[in-house]
Amino acid sequence: MTPDSPPRRQVPFAGLPRVDDAELCRRAAEVAADLRQRRSVRHFSDRPVPDAAIDDCVRAALSAPSGANQQPWHFVTVTDPAIKARIRDAAEEEERAFYQGRAPAAWLDALGPLGTDEHKPFLEDAPCLIVIFAQMFGEHDGHKVKHYYVQESVGIATGILVTALHQVGLASLTHTPSPMRFLNEILDRPSSERPFLILVVGHPADGATVPDIERRPFDSSVTRR
Q1: How far apart are CA 144 and CA 126, in angstroms?
Q2: d(Cα 74, Cα 58) in Å, to the nearest integer?
Q3: Which of 159, 170, 204, 207 counts the most CB atoms within 10 A of its CB?
């Protein structure tokens, strides 16, 4: 849309049914309690996940707001074992360089309690990887169009995706080896897209464990004015 373009036609909003305050609070408490159970999982079962379930969770992510409605994202779902193996090999190469030299001592100290290292078997073990790309530019009528608020927009869409996966009963893990440009080559994505993160998706393995961590208290993270 250019400065001279007419405003978009407005349509009635009918996305939310009216509920009373008691029902509103009940729903809010239910959602909060459910999402407090969400954890990042690193041990996945090889149990397949239906493509339709993944597709619908991605559809939820595609509903995210974005700067000027430019929708500056692209999602690649990966279930092919050979492609997952290539991603793991490339990611572990970057992770070895990170853990063995690039990472400052303070960063390694922060990661220490979580027990992470350069080994990323979950990239092959999990049945599905969702690789999220941020589109820095788009195309309209054959012309290159710069996208705005790209990181913010893609971040919101990713948050919706993580929430949707949890609510349908799937575990996920955000993974961000750095740099990640190898994903463009492996997944045949254009240079105008930057890898945002890899979302590892599936069912937890039997006996899966997670670090014993605590969330910051509500009042230390939230201020009401």
Answers
A1: 37
A2: 10
A3: 170
pLDDT of the chain, 225 residues: tens digit per residue: 555 567 889 999 888 889 999 999 999 999 999 999 999 999 999 999 999 999 999 999 999 999 999 999 999 999 999 999 999 999 999 999 988 888 888 988 888 887 788 899 999 999 999 999 999 998 878 888 999 999 999 999 999 999 999 999 999 999 999 899 999 999 999 999 999 999 999 999 999 999 998 899 999 999 999
27 in a domain, yes or no?
no
Asked if residue 179 has a cis previous peptide bond (ω within 30° of 0), the answer is yes
- Rounded (5°) CA angle 53-56-57: 85
Residue 74 lies in a domain: yes
Single-letter amino acid, residue 221: S
Q: Is residue 116 part of a domain?
A: yes
4 assigned to some structural domain: no
CA–CA gap between residue 104 and residue 27 (Å, rounded): 44
Q: Which domain holds residue 88?
A: 39-207
Number of structural domains (the chain) is 1
The full length of the chain comes to 225
- For the domain that residue 113 is a member of, what is the CATH number? 3.40.109.10
Residue with tokens 């993270």: 221
For residues 11 and 112, what is the distance between their CA atoms, to the nearest angstrom?
A: 52
Nearest to 124, CA basis, from 183, 91, 86, 84: 84
